[in-house]
Fold this protein.
Amino acid sequence: MIIDHPLLGPRDIAEFICLGDAVLIERPDPAAGDAMDRFHDWLHLRDNPAGEHRELWYHEHGDRSWLVVTRDTLTHEIRRVELARDVARARGRGV
Amino acid sequence: MGYSAFRIVREALTGHRGWKPAWRDPEPKAEYDAVVVGGGGHGLATAFYLAREHGLANVAVLEKGWLGSGNIGRNTTIIRSNYLLPGNQPFYEWSMKLWEGLEQALNFNAMVSQRGVLNLCHSDAQRDAYARRGNAMIMSGADAVLLDRDGVRRMCPFLDFDNARFPITGGLWQPRGGTARHDAVAWGYARAADRRGVDIVQNCEVTGFLIEGGVCRGVETTRGPIRARRVGVAVAGSSSRVMALAGLRLPIESHVLQAFVTEGLKPVLPGVVTYGAGHFYVSQSDKGGLVFGGDLDGYNTYAQRGNLPVVEDVCEGGMAMMPSIGRARVLRMWGGVVDMSMDGSPIIDRTPVEGLFFNGGWCYGGFKATPASGWCFAHLMATGDPHPVAAAMRLDRFRTGAPIDERGAGPQPNLH
């Protein structure tokens, strides 16, 4: 697979580490009343779809950026690559 | 009619006209005492033990494709019980004991071959860890022998002992480990279950569950609804998708694991050898091919093929451990989709839906577990209580803080 990095262009997946479902950047609020349940679900439970899947990839052997990659788990086709930073900012997080 | 040497001779003398199909191809009935979803090794074993150990004859196994078309037909055939943790080791040792009596129990030649499994170590710390693991194995009733460098050299002189980075310092050997013929395991269980009255229904995909008032009463299938007093799901690889039909989310991701076979060679490997410094394991099939594999590709996938970086990584491990393997040509490689659970250990448990039971999350170690998995899942489905050797394999163990994390990698499936 080739990941088309938004800043660096096409890169081989051997340069990356996959962390898993992109839900991991949506960390629950630890002050919420039901934080225990939310953290359990967030950390351990997965939708695990056959088809389009958003996941986090870390460019360890490159610029060490975090990417949100939208990929088809049935075909390996990569449909979209975004910087995780941009995804978080679009949700009103970060500065 | 049973299989025997006498039968083979008789059939040979009469033109082999007496052989019959090994199992029936029945139409599904409208109702069963128990339905097992998934006609792989674990599902078929479950049905067999439901019939033999618990006297349930009115059982069906529903398989989406053909029998044994899933992971039972895609693995590297290794059987062993060399685990460490108390939630795991007694279970795998029970599986090993069932392997040892399997062919007699099934009247089927599954080519169980106890040639031994050798794990190599490359440092003092690793040897200490293996000494501890060996003791854990012995405490569960398994066998384990800690070998020094010369002991390993006598057994496998072809290994790279003087590797500059990872010299071999010894190994943990389980003499009772080995290999079994994976397809024959499925066929043997299918035939033995069929002979006890179990209906094995192929080309029958489960498309939903009949849940009435929070209680599972059966399944919807492509061949019509089938009612059942209890439903067990053993579809590892597709667990998330099937259990989502019942509204459940699982602590499981689907990943691809690749495996490889070389051209046929004369006997070179005495048993199974695993590399301790990287992830590589190899054995030799009865046809002579070296069967080997290594790490997962590490990302969610349902495509039954992997990618080249892992091929390279596996072959590097092989070359570092056993340089002579570089002269062999790889004939075939393939990828199987496995459930990777959050702690690397399986789940055999009830679900929040009454009457619905789940067996999955085998990561890439499901084959060796086939007999005990079926045994314990049958026990759970028949009695409603977990079998003692599988009691720690809970579905809610992450919520209660009782994971079984052999690797110590935390909730990261692609590291287990």
